[in-house]
Protein: RNA methyltransferase
Organism: Novosphingobium aureum
Amino acid sequence: MSKRGQGNNDESGGQPAGKRGKALRGRAGRMKNGRGSGRGTSGMTRLWGRHAVEAALKNPNRSHRKLWATREGVESLDGELPSDFNVEWADVADLARLVARDAPHQGLVLECEPLDDIFLSDVLDNDPARPVIVLDQVTDPHNVGAIMRSAAAFNACCIVTQDRHAPPESGTLAKSASGALEVLPWVRVVNLARALEEIAEAGYWRIGLDGEAQGTLAEALPSGPVALVLGAEGDGMRHNIVQHCDAIAKLPISEAMESLNVSNAAAIALYAAATR
């Protein structure tokens, strides 16, 4: 993630950036027809790899359709499958045709329903120990999955993305998340700025990460609930998203390195929030 990619430059360096706005009565602009870009045309999600498949099988909120697997793949799972579970035995070459090219399926491919929509107001718990992660147009599924993994590891409250400018629920994302997709609430909204207003009204201090800010994240972190906002690599946060942050801060990386991957920046920010 580049120093600028932590968010657009804001010379206030940790000062409030815009008013919080009025309280929202709605659900952060949720689409009536569900997850939108989060679903494929078939309406099914295909997951692969042991951690992603095992977590999905253990998730009581998942509706499973079919598991293609090798004998070794099933033996690697923690726990036994129900006797009536729909399993189709296959060899490695057969499974390779069901997933993305060169995807490490580890002998397991699961087809299931996408996870149900989650309302932002249902997951904000105002717990200072559980930060919220907000991603502004981070579109790479590997990055989003890796951020989910870190967020789950540091007990984050949820991850919030815009529905049209984030990757859909997919096997690639789930593999990178290594099971976190099934345990971390993922809130997809139509309007990210309105979601940030709702987060503020719930009592969270919103910090946008920008490598060109004057103040550091450690200086900007409050003692209470915090929402960490990260923009896409290169472009950073959009101007309107910056205006919906209470403070802008940077990670104090060495001048010898120009950039950090956005998922690395998120992991460091989550650690900083967890060790306040």
